[in-house]
Amino acid sequence: MTPHFPSRNFYINSLAPTPLVSVQLDAADPPIWCKLEFLNPSGSTKDRIARYILEKAWREGRLRPGDVVIEASSGSTSIAMALASAQLGLRFIAVMPATVSSERLHMIRGFGGETHLISSGGIHEAIRETERLAAELNAFLPRQFANPDNARAHQHGTAREVLDQIPGGAVDAVVSGVGTGGTLVGLMEGCRDGGCPVTPVLARPVHITSTPEVECCSFSSKIPGVMDCISSIFQPESIPNLISLEIRDDEALATTRRLIAAGFPVGPSSGLNFTAALRAAREHLPPEAAIVTVFPDRMERYFSTGLFD
Ligand code: PMP
After folding, report:
1. Is the CB of 205 within 6 Å of ligand 1?
2. Is the pLDDT of residue 8 over 80?
3. How many domains does the chain have?
4. Which residue among 41, 149, 241, 254 has its CA within the 20 to 30 Å range from the CA of 301?
């Protein structure tokens, strides 16, 4: 028998579709279809994977009230898991690099979650630590970096909504930066399920340091949540027709500020995605292509970061 959800589960039953809007910051730019994922209950697209993974485990009897859930995350997934855990009566422990913004810690703790900070080794060490803690506490591990249900949440949720919302029901390209890769892979597969053989576009942030002698380009960690791939969900070499675009982090942050000034309360990865979508439209895709990207999270998470300098 399917176990009943607890009575305070309004979130599990009522996650509403997010709007899809056409955004054009300059009249000369091609319009980009943007999915306003910052409007999800905890403020990011990660509410989808928290809901999908915890709901599935709940239905299958692998989670009960009072159980412990542990996740490694740069923040957004932990906030979403903390919210869902609060509503389901679960104990949640977030394992995160100590560099995450204080706003994220406040949100997780506000939802009653515990935070376990890793001072070195970044997300890789955080993942190892979740495995160690889970063995000790007999906890449930959502494992966002390895769990295919992460991408399925977007395939069956985000992508389906996009196909219902976009005029004409057809998408030509999907654009996203990658943390776990769940968003990009799920959007791509969901659009293909719906009969749209989309071109996937990877937005890869880079940091340019230039001195009079040398210009150096390296992967940038100034876009929180987006990282060089450590996930088994996203295997770029096995994705046919993947367009990979390097986007300067300063350009991504400048676009983020322009989006905010235009009335979209977004965080840096939205600026990254929008910049990449525009570049793809101008340089790689046919003029009338319907291009979809996501605005993953909200600006309020970044008040203490360089975004508002
Ligand atoms: N933007 C933000 C703010 C994120 O936190 C993340 C994921 N950590 C992403 C984008 C990337 O999403 P995904 O994990 O689905 O690749």
Report:
1. no
2. no
3. 2
4. 149
CATH number at residue 56: 3.40.50.1100
- Distance between CA atoms of residues 301 and 251, nearest Å: 20
Element (H, E) at 7: none
How close is the Cα of 302 to the center of ligand 1, in Å? 14
Q: Please give the pLDDT value at position 309.
A: 82
Can you give the C-alpha Rg of the chain in angstroms? 19
What are the C-alpha distances in Å from 126 to residues 34, 35, 221?
A: 31, 30, 16
196 Cα to the center of ligand 1, angstroms: 24
Domain termination residue (choose one: 108, 137, 166): 137
Give the pLDDT score at 41.
93
pLDDT, tens digit (0-9, with 9 covering 90-100), for 152-196: 999 999 999 999 999 999 999 999 999 999 999 999 999 999 999
Test site for ligand 1: of 35, 38, 46, 184, most ligand atoms within 8 A of the Cβ? 46
Q: Which atom of ligand 1 is found nearest the CA of 73?
A: 8
Does residue 6 sit within a domain?
no
Residues 6 or more apart in contact with residue 195 via CB below 8 angstroms: none
Q: How confident is the model at residue 199 (pLDDT cuts 50, 70, 90)?
A: very high
Q: Does residue 167 share a domain with residue 286?
A: yes
In terms of residue numbers, what domain contains 68? 46-137
Domain-located, residue 193: yes
Cα separation values, 281 from 59, 100, 184, 285, 296, Å: 42, 33, 17, 5, 20
Ligand 1 centroid vs 130 CA: distance in angstroms? 19
Question: How many residues in total does the chain contain?
Answer: 309
Closest atom of ligand 1 to 297 CA is 3
In this prediction, residues 125-150 reach a mean pLDDT of 95
Which residue of 45, 273, 307 sits with most ligand 1 atoms within 8 Å of its CB, as the best mutation to test the pocket?
45
Mean pLDDT across 109-126:
91
On whether both 231 and 83 belong to a single domain, the answer is: no
